[in-house]
Amino acid sequence: MLAPSTANTMPSSPLPEFTDKRARRKALGAYYTPPELASVLVRWAVDDDTTRVLDPSHGDGRFLQAAIDRLRGLGVRAPQRRVFGAELDSSAIGRPALLQDDVPVQNLVAGDFFATDLDSWDGKRFDAIVGNPPYVRHHLLPAGSKRLAQLHARRVGIALSERADAWAYFCAALLDYLEPRGRLALLLPGAVLHAEYALPLLHKLSEAGGRVRLIRIQRRLFEDAAERTVVLLIDGRHASVGVDYREVSDVKELASVLGGKSSSSGGWRSSASLDSDTVAVPALRLRTRLRWFVSPDVADIWERITETREVRLLGDVAEIRIGVVTGANRFFVLDEPTAGTLRGSGVATMPVVSRGAWLNGVRWTEDDQQLRRDKPSQLLLVDSRARRERLRKALREAIDGAEEQAIDERSHCKLRKPWYSLRDWRPPKLFLPYMASVPPRLVVNHAQATCTNAIHRVDLKTGQPGAAAIAAASWTSLYRLSAELVGRSYGAGVLKLEPNEAVQLRIPIFPGGAQNLHKIERALSRGGYDEAQEVADSLLLRDHMGLSARDVEILREAASELQRRRCSG
Predict the structure, then answer these.
(1) Residue-averaged pLDDT of the chain
(2) Can you tell me the distance from the alpha carbon of 166 to that of 153, in angstroms, rounded to the nearest whole number?
(3) SS in 3 state form for 245-313?
(4) Predicted confidence band of residue 2 (pLDDT cuts 50, 70, 90)
(5) What is the C-alpha to C-alpha distance for residues 12 and 418, in angstroms, rounded to an integer?
(6) CATH classification number, 4-293, choose in 3.40.50.300, 3.30.200.20, 3.30.160.100, 3.40.50.150
(7) For the chain, which terminal residue's Cβ has fewer other Cβ atoms within 10 angstroms, N or C?
(8) Could you report the per-residue pLDDT of 130-151, keeping only the tens digit for each?
(9) Structural domain spans, the chain
């Protein structure tokens, strides 16, 4: 058993002290892999020819123990000498419960993986790399570790954005550690399927030689992790173009696929060509998802429909901005009774929609706003020229209390002078919730309300159709499918649309938007979402575009299947 005091050490990144184990685990991105899953990946990556196995963030050693067991089963003597690793978390190093063998101390590095190079392990590359890189978001990466990680990425020709999370840097760095004919098997978060920086990374991985594959596991494997797990496989013994993709239901089916057996969830699907000149274009990501996520029939109908002049990108007809970023919603977003005590000279409030869940209709009216008067529904607006001492006493006391809690020092607040005076609060023509379990639809703003940053603000470009026409289009199966294709899937079945993704939404635009929206609204009131969608499809896709009933049904079924996939597990 390796004792922590005798472990090979490297400079480690500064980490705060945590008294709460869960907080520490989140900061380190430590989500330990079920042993049976580690064994499945190791069985694929390690065979008789494997002489060196690396886990770059070994935690309590379960991948390494699986590698030892695998090598021993293959008849290897002293298999513990063939495993190597690095680990930043000192508490994990101190309890390698699964490493029952005497691993040579020089094989395991105690410290930041990004502070290593091949000389940390005798200067030799590895035949197999396995593991579960930490799930650390970009803004939580210590500055020193991030600088080292970026150096690793640049060394292999990968330019990752500042918003890249830790797993992406691990993938990039490990290219330099893998033998040309080696095998790599890593557990990654679902972000590999949707993050802006993921396609350039996958392009470089596929360009480096070997066959690159992604397998999404439907069942959620990590209780505290919001995203589904995706397995990244690189096999240097086979060559391919692009990146292959498939899905499996659980670990048992994953084992079957990696063992070369047939699977009930269908075969591999290849990505669109990952051209290095266009890899960062959002349209390429959409084309890749069409290849990966839907059948060829659906993709053909999609391409045929979206190339017509009747179908537009939302970004072509509208501008999309995030809602008001206050930096302190509890201070700025108030119920009506509280807001009434603060209004006065230089101080006003305006209606605000603070919850995306409120927007469950086709339009937002003054009556809807009034029904929420006891909820956070008024936005505090203080004139920046108003003298503080002349504000109403209740507001002065609220400001003093906020400053005692250092709210004025928060990042968004400290940019304003004075901090309690908001700038950008203009009401939009339409609202678009950016996170929901159902595809978020556009809602016409009849209440002249603004919204918080839980909702996007959508305004029409000059000369474009009216708000009603755009809102009506968002009830079609075409729009719903586009939302599933361009949005991001998060835990609990949540679909998230960032502004740069929302501009890719497809909407069929026709005249008579107000009349169409009225019919959709009546259907929604009468029969719910399904009936409203049926009416929208009938009016816009069948009557106006001339699509067959079968084409519309295929679009609807594809959207429903993607939603089920997102919400399952």
Answers:
(1) 88
(2) 12
(3) EEEECCHHHHHHHHCCCCCCCCCCEECCCCCCCCCCCHHHHHHHHHHHHCCHHHHHHHHHHHCCCCEEE
(4) very low
(5) 41
(6) 3.40.50.150
(7) N
(8) 999 998 887 888 899 999 999 9
(9) 4-293, 322-331+350-380+424-567
